Amino acid sequence: PELEAFGNAKTLRNDNSSRFGKYMDMQFNYQGDPIGGVITEYLLEKSRVVHQTEGERNFHIFYQLLRGAPDDLLAQLKLSRRPSDYQYLSQSGVDKLEAVDDAKEWADVHEAFAVIGFDAGEQEAIMKLVAAILHLGNLAFEGFALPEGIGASKLLPSPSLASAWAVLGCPQAALETVLTQRKITSGRESVVTPLKVADAAHARNALCKAIYARLFTWLVARINECIEV
Questions:
Q1: Structure pTM?
Q2: What is the 3-class SS of the chain, one letter each residue?
Q3: What sign results for the dihedral spanned by CA atoms 95, 13, 108, 51?
Q4: What's the maximum distance between 2 C-alpha atoms anywhere in the chain?
Q5: C-alpha angle with apex 180: 176 to 184, nearest 5 degrees?
Q6: Most buried residue, 5, 103, 147, 158, by CB count within 10 Å?
């Protein structure tokens, strides 16, 4: 259920399409019975995290979390139950599948985490990263010109900003700097340049894609620890 939740999504042709490649090496005992395996993942469709074609959905886990997680967890993650509240889930016009109960799917994923051996701290950290992506996606930027005439941008006030840095556990100022400035280092010298609005939005999206991709890679590695002999 984990790989399906984090790696599958609705497309125009398939309500449960795998959006990553995988190779599984099965391990058998001398009697020919399967006793373990190793999963290799590649080419996760990271772009889906920040953009979906009309009629498609983001990865299942986002909707499962919003519709199935208990109220206290959503409050901790500062999330609502409405996918329409989040930019990354409201672009395509589709957030619900007729034949799929996202709340039930969440229960299956939650149970599978425990069966595989994920402890409570690991599960909480995973969901914090998923929530952070939704909050980051809601951040908007406003452009302005520096005294020397260089274009720059700043984050517009938003509850999502405080929610993002809270679930990520990083200082708000550091998050703002990362999203609105670019630092180039050459040797011992570093140059910091401001980002225009379009570039800042691109940086936000790139950050979210990187977070999700690294989470997915870690998830596969953690599952391999449990199933490899």
A1: 0.92
A2: CHHHHHHEECCCCCCCEECCEEEEEEEECCCCCEEEEEEEEECCCHHHHCCCCCCCCCEHHHHHHHHHCCHHHHHHHCCCCCHHHCHHHCCCCCCCCCCCCHHHHHHHHHHHHHHHCCCHHHHHHHHHHHHHHHHHHCCCEEEEECCCCCEEEEECCCHHHHHHHHHHCCCHHHHHHHHHEEEEEECCEEEEEECCHHHHHHHHHHHHHHHHHHHHHHHHHHHHHHHCC
A3: negative
A4: 76
A5: 115
A6: 5
